[in-house]
Prior knowledge:
5 helices
Amino acid sequence: xxxxxxxLGPVRHSxxxxxxxxxxxxxxxxxxxxxxxxxxxxxLSVSDVAGTAWPFLIGxxxxxxxxxxxxxxxxxxxxxxxxxxxxxxxxxxxxxxLADGGAPLSFVAVATGSLAxxxxxxxxxxxxxxxxx
Length: 133
C-alpha cells in the first residue's frame, strides 16, 4: 500500500483518482475546442474556447452521470462509448439551440471522431495503468 493510500484510505484515494479522471476528460474536451478554434481561426481567448467547449462539457457531465462512470471511470464499454455519444449529441444540440452555432454533418463527424479518440484513448491508457498496478 502506498503512503497516499495509507494516509487517505482506499475509498478516498479512489474518489480522488475518479475526480482526476473526470477533470482529465474535461481537459480533453477543452483541448478539442482549442484545436477546433485554432483550425478555424475563431479565436483562442478563454471566452472563445469556453464558448466552443461548454456545450460539450455539459454533455460530458451528463454522460458521466447517466452511465455512473465514477464506478468504473476507465471502462471502454459501455460507459466510455456512451459518454462519447452523449457528449457529442448533447453538445451539438446545445450548440445549435443555445450557442448560436451550426452543426453540419462534417462537423458532427469530426467532433465524434475526435472526442472518441480523446475520451476512449484516455480510458484505454488509464485502464492499462490500473492493470499494471
